[in-house]
Design brief:
The complex is a heterotrimer of chains A (about 350), B (about 140) and C (about 350).
Chain A lengths: L3 H14 L5 E6 L6 E6 L20 H12 L8 E5 L1 H12 L8 E6 L9 H8 L6 E4 L4 E6 L2 E6 H4 L2 H4 L11 E3 L12 H7 L3 H13 L6 H4 L24 H6 L10 H14 L9 H5 L7 H15 L27
Chain B lengths: L8 E6 L3 H10 L8 E6 L7 H9 L4 E6 L10 H18 L7 E5 L5 H18 L10
Parallel strand pairs in B: 1-2, 1-3, 3-4
Helix pairs in contact in B: 1-4
Chain C lengths: L1 E5 L3 H6 L5 E8 L2 E6 L18 H4 L3 E9 L5 E5 L7 E6 L1 H14 L6 H9 E6 L26 E5 L3 E6 L2 H9 L4 E2 L3 H16 L11 H6 L6 H5 L8 H4 L7 E10 L2 E9 L20 H20 L9 H5 L6 H10 L3
Parallel strand pairs in C: 2-6, 6-7, 7-8
Antiparallel strand pairs in C: 1-9, 1-10, 2-3, 4-5, 4-12, 8-9, 11-12
The chains are: A alpha/beta (about 350), B alpha/beta (about 140), C alpha+beta (about 350).
């Protein structure tokens, strides 16, 4: 099991050595059970770090911010940043490395084991506790979470309150790291694409009705895009003036820019947005599930990504985020890629 | 007969093969349904999924992407990339419940005017029974 | 006008209101939202806080201003589109959301009345429901001049007394609604009033979260515009639009032309929600962006709510509904931020 004191000690050590700019990790929120992202600069603040099943966030999102910030600085601090990653998050680091968005020497990876379990689904837990408020959640012996609620300790089988994506996870241990805490616990999901198969088994019109109902709810807050570590484009097609407008861009040039997607949250626009998002993440999404967790309206956007993950596996035998040296899905091909659909 | 549904097809044709193939069909006076709106792109590999989705959004009943045969790409391997990408787009569109017939891909060389007309004829015949595409069309 | 309504009579009263379009909280999956209802029996007033406030009915995310096209003779044709005449009743409005509408009123009113906003606003009758239990663990209405049984902005306030509702009409519009169901209402007795007081007192106590010494915050913010504080606070912000889109008081919008066809020209001019959290919100056509990073955008959100709005309208642009706290994907908590602001530099 990950010893939290070891994590703090290691964090303190690397900060004291001065080779690390800061640590991106998790800390307890002063309010409620959930943790939140923490940015630790001083060795004495390493005490704040935590690791428990409420650490749902994929912190690699903040490596994108770090790169942006660094690009703007006149005299950037070139020391690496340290980042705490779970198994899934480590695959996100692999993809960022694979795409050469970040360099290996820019990041110091502190891996943590998910202990054969994973992270909690807040909604499932709330339902399970029937109105009681959880104050704390911890990993307990194998496959259980220990919840503290009003001073009372409750043990719940992890399987019952795990996030959906953790139930389908194929990497519950970091695949890349400089330092790793906790042991590798083998846990293979029975069926990594269970959630997809449910939808696939529906008829065409049922599938359409399902997605229409879901995507019509979208208010286009773009949380699913913003929370995603892979959505690092400087300009996104959905932003109304996301064009390369520079000081010397003429009015004519601006007028000629194509607006691919209108701002209105209409059915057609929502569909185009979500489909483009999914396609853009094909062969890049590592299924951290953050898009779905962030959605305020509970749209199961993760399923679109998951579908493409499945197709990439079945059609091209491609698995995302295990080997930073491998060419990415969209920038490679095989001579014998399937083409039975082509006339 | 006047009221029969005439599907509108947007065909993205690569400049070097498929577009030349459609030209050949034209200059050879081959007859084929006038339901196609051809758009020339530099390479099938340059097709952004946004082009496809935009065509559907603006009311296309069917979309065709056509490129050179594997090995014949003017840019050596553009069509190999397209093959992968289009396969994924096709799977995704089917997943959300769009009729699979509506989105097609083909290889048409500059010499294959006949093949091009046949593809369009078949495409139109397949689209007629399923009627207009309303799912992704912008309505208001 | 104060009345008592038996719970079993509630659907019958609603049935009498058939000339109105009825909105009420409806559940979709785990998510509550205000939706149009067709059957009075479908209204469930035992609901948690909706994700979007009733703001979305009065100030919809998309509002068509006008339609344009080329007419047969080749001349441009422009038609104004106004919200339809459709009197509506919104049931189950939380006091914080009703108060929020009084704040957007001052923005869309004042020197210039926003025709589209007011057309919808004037047609809507707000029937509130006092919060027995805080509908969200992050409710903090008491800190921002509100309360779980506040009447501000409402036409009718209903309070759940167990087997009956205590119904208080606060405006002419409200009276009219009560009169339509006259026979279902009873006169309140002394016990009802006592129960009401007890419940109101208890519900206030159940609200746990507070912004302490809020009065100190606006002057403090004024000093903090250039503070590095915002860089620190915004580190975890992911620049999505949840906090502002879900906020019942946020009202920023964008106007754009949506062209359906370019030949012949056909399209609409529409107003859609916009948010200060998006990078293009302040983007100039020159390419310069005065709020280039997320720190300046987070600052804008806080300053607008707790400094600029206070200076201009003498009120906080926040009603303590807690939505931005509950739904923030990275746990940014406006109460925590304001607590830090208050104590900053001391």
């Amino acid at each position: 099991m990950v010893n939290l004191e070891d994590l703090k000690k290691e964090a303190k050590r690397i900060l004291e050595e001065g080779k690390i700019k800061y640590i991106i990790g998790y800390e307890r929120s002063p309010n409620g059970m959930m943790s939140m992202p923490a940015f630790i600069k001083n060795p004495e603040d390493a005490e704040r770090l935590t690791w428990d099943p409420s650490c749902v966030y994929n912190l690699t999102r903040f490596l994108v911010d770090e790169k942006r910030r660094k690009a703007k600085e006149k005299k950037p601090d070139t020391r690496p940043v340290a980042i705490v990653v779970k198994g899934c998050d480590s695959r996100a680091v692999v993809v960022l490395l694979q795409e050469k968005f970040i360099n290996r020497e820019d990041v110091y990876i502190l891996g943590v084991s998910c202990e054969g379990a994973g992270v909690v689904d807040e909604k499932k837990l709330t339902e399970k506790l029937k109105g009681k408020k959880a104050d704390k959640i911890e990993f307990s012996e194998k496959d259980h979470f220990l919840i503290t609620s009003d001073g009372e300790k409750i043990k719940i089988p992890a399987q019952e309150i795990l996030a959906e994506r953790c139930l389908e996870c194929r990497a519950n241990f970091p695949v890349i790291y400089d330092e790793v805490l906790g042991e590798k616990v083998e846990r293979r999901p029975e069926d990594p694409f269970k959630s997809i198969e449910r939808i696939e088994s529906l008829s065409k019109e049922e599938r359409w009705a399902f997605w229409k109902e879901q995507l019509d709810k979208c208010i286009r807050c773009y949380a699913c895009r913003s929370v995603c570590p892979m959505c690092y484009c400087d300009e996104c097609v959905v932003d109304t003036i996301s064009f390369a407008v520079a000081a010397d861009t003429t009015a004519e040039e601006k007028a000629q820019k194509i607006k691919w997607i209108e701002r209105s949250p209409d059915s057609s626009e929502n569909f185009v947005y979500h489909l483009v998002r999914a396609i853009h993440l094909a062969g890049r999404c590592i299924d951290c599930g953050e898009c779905e967790r962030a959605c305020p309206l509970d749209i199961p956007v993760r399923l679109l990504n998951k579908k493409l993950e499945k197709e990439a596996k079945e059609l091209f035998d491609y698995e995302v985020g295990f080997d930073p040296e491998k060419p990415s899905l969209a920038s490679s091909f095989k001579d014998d890629d399937p083409e039975d659909f082509i006339r | 007969m006047a009221d029969e549904f005439e599907p509108k097809i947007v065909a993205f044709l690569c400049k070097w093969c498929s577009s030349a193939g459609s030209d050949l069909a034209g200059v050879s006076r081959m007859q084929y349904p006038p339901n196609v709106i051809p758009i020339t792109v530099m390479c099938s590999g340059s097709m952004s999924p946004l082009y496809i989705l935009s065509a559907f959004k603006k009311g296309a009943d069917g979309v065709l992407v056509s490129g050179c045969h594997p090995g014949d790409c003017h840019y050596i391997k553009g069509n190999f990339y397209a093959r992968r990408r289009i396969a994924l787009v096709k799977k995704l569109l089917e997943f959300i419940g769009l009729e699979p017939q509506r989105f097609q891909m083909s290889w048409v060389s500059a010499a294959e005017g006949t093949k091009y007309t046949q593809i369009i004829k078949d495409f139109v015949e397949e689209l007629k029974p399923i009627g207009p595409q309303t799912k992704l069309r912008r309505s208001s | 006008m104060q009345k008592i309504l038996r719970k079993k009579s509630f659907p019958q009263w609603v049935k009498k209101l058939e000339s109105y379009k009825i909105y009420a909280p409806a559940k979709n999956g785990d998510v509550w939202n205000y939706e149009a209802v067709n059957h009075s029996e479908d209204i469930d007033l035992d609901y948690l806080n909706s994700v979007l406030s009733p703001k979305k009915i009065i100030f919809p995310q998309r509002e068509i201003f006008l339609e344009f096209s080329t007419s047969n003779d080749g001349n441009p044709e422009i038609n104004e589109v106004l919200p339809e005449e459709n009197p509506s009743v919104i049931f189950g409005v939380r006091p914080c959301d009703a108060k929020a509408l009084t704040l957007t009123d001052s923005v869309f009113g004042g020197d210039f009345d926003d025709l589209y906003y007011w057309r919808r606003r004037d047609q809507a009758i707000l029937v509130g429901l006092a919060c027995h239990n805080p509908p969200s663990p992050n409710c903090f209405c008491l800190s921002v001049n509100g309360s779980p049984h506040s009447k501000e902005g409402l036409d009718i306030l209903m309070t759940d007394l167990g087997d009956r509702y205590y119904v208080e009409s606060l405006t002419e519009k409200g009276n009219k609604l009560l009169n339509l169901g006259n026979k279902f209402f009873e006169e309140p007795k002394a016990k009802d009033k006592k129960d009401l007081e007890k419940i109101n007192l208890a519900s206030e106590k159940k609200i746990k979260r507070r912004i302490k010494e809020i009065k100190k915050i606006p002057p403090q913010l004024k000093e903090m515009f250039d503070s590095p504080f915002w860089d620190e606070e915004a580190m975890s912000c992911i620049r999505c639009g949840i906090c502002t889109y879900l906020c019942p008081t946020c009202h920023c919008f964008d106007i754009s032309d949506e062209v359906l066809s370019s030949s012949p020209i056909e399209g609409k001019r529409v107003r859609t929600w916009d948010t200060c959290q998006f990078p293009d919100f302040t983007m100039h056509s020159s390419g310069h962006n005065p709020r280039p990073d997320k720190a300046s955008r987070l600052r804008q959100r806080i300053l607008h709510k707790f400094q600029y709005f206070v200076e201009r309208y003498k009120n906080y642009q926040c009603t303590g509904c807690g939505r931005c706290i509950s739904k923030c994907p990275v746990g940014i908590d406006i109460i925590e931020v304001l607590d830090k602001v208050r104590d900053y530099g001391t």
